[in-house]
């Protein structure tokens, strides 16, 4: 169990250091808010597409794929998203917060947590099992996030337009804010992350291979994306703003770190999954929200400040919650 805690700590600590570095640089006055906003936009429009391209382009074929395992992960993810899309609007009034909370609960930093933790607990077989799911789930995460954020953004724009119309010419019986399917589809297909993934898929399935002189810098830019995004997040973090958002943060992180892992464990046990598969699903739902969620929310009409707080606080809390789940699994003979 000590080794598992050290693995969780080693996975999370680099995140904390990147965030601290960004926060320290901003506090020292080396950069200002305007610069960080421009840098954040650049990361979203230029770096994330390259990362998505690289992730898809470098997918390796894994021979041993258990279809029930993959389908369980996919269908459970879809079910969670649908339930959240129905439940969250009942308790959260603002559209910018709704999309961020839905994304904050279902989406995890699966790539950076699953591989080291699965390999630490189960060795090479654990890493291979995690790799299979990463190749399928991460693109699904991103596609769903783009659609969800665009939907709530469109709703917010429609609601704002209705409010303006009502103020100009009050009428009885307001219409519900609606999403324009054409605009939604156009925004999804032109989203930088989706464009990067599509181009990567074209290269992957067509068999086109980049020469090493090109592939190497592409991979280097992809590797820079997460540290740079965390640096920006650290620089824009405002601790005084956390208090007003506690009403969102507590239930979001409780659902993310405790409720979903619990339900996943019950489901995987009922379906007689192997210990490795059950553990990977636990990490899929129990690891903190992906760093990309902050940049996406900030650039797609969501509450960027709330998204950043979910990432930062969730990352810190995950050291203890993931260790707690691993310890519990060990005590119950599930590892």
The overall average pLDDT, rounded, is 83
Report the strand count: 0
Q: What is the number of independent domains?
A: 1
Radius of gyration over C-alpha positions, nearest whole angstrom:
20 Å
Instruction: Give the N-terminus to C-terminus distance in angstroms.
Output: 11 Å
Shape annotation: globular
Order of helices and strands: HHHHHHHHHHHHH
Portion of residues within helices: over 70%
The largest β sheet comes out as:
none
SS summary, helix count: 13
Low-confidence parts: 171-176
Report strand %: under 5%
SS class: mainly alpha
Q: Mind explaining what this structure looks like?
A:
By secondary structure, this protein is an all-alpha fold. It has one domain (2-46, 69-163, 179-194, 226-331). It contains 13 helices and no strands. The chain has helices at 2-27, 33-57, 67-91, 95-106, 110-122, 124-168, 181-189, 192-206, 212-236, 246-270, 275-286, 292-299, 304-331. Helix 1 runs antiparallel to helix 5 and helix 1 crosses helix 9.
């Amino acid at each position: 169990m000590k080794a598992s805690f050290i693995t969780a700590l080693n996975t999370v600590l680099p995140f904390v250091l990147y965030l601290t570095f960004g926060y320290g640089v901003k506090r020292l006055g080396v950069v200002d808010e305007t610069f960080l906003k421009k840098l954040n936009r650049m990361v979203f429009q230029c770096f994330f597409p390259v990362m998505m391209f690289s992730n898809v382009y470098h997918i390796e074929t894994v021979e041993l794929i258990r279809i029930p395992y993959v389908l369980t992960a996919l269908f459970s993810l879809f079910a969670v998203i649908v339930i959240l899309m129905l439940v969250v609007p009942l308790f959260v009034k603002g559209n910018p917060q709704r999309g961020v909370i839905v994304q904050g609960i279902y989406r995890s930093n699966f790539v950076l947590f699953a591989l080291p933790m699965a390999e630490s607990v189960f060795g090479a077989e654990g890493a291979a099992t995690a790799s299979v799911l990463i190749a399928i789930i991460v693109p699904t995460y991103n596609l769903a996030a783009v659609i969800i954020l665009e939907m709530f953004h469109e709703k917010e724009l429609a609601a704002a337009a209705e409010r303006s119309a009502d103020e100009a010419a009050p009428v009885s019986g307001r219409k519900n804010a609606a999403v324009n399917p054409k605009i939604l589809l156009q925004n999804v297909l032109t989203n930088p992350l989706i464009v990067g993934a599509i181009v990567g898929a074209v290269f992957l399935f067509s068999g086109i291979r980049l020469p090493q002189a090109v592939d190497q810098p592409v991979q280097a830019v992809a590797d820079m994306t997460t540290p740079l995004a965390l640096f920006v997040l650290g620089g824009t973090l405002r601790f005084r703003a956390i208090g007003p958002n506690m009403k969102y943060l507590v239930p979001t992180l409780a659902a993310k770190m405790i409720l979903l892992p619990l339900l996943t464990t019950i489901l995987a046990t009922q379906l007689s999954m192997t210990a490795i598969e059950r553990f990977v699903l636990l990490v899929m739902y129990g690891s903190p929200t992906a760093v990309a969620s902050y940049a996406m929310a900030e650039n797609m009409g969501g509450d960027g400040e709330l998204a950043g707080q979910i990432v930062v606080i969730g990352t810190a809390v995950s050291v203890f919650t993931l260790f707690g789940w691993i310890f519990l699994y060990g005590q119950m003979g599930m590892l």
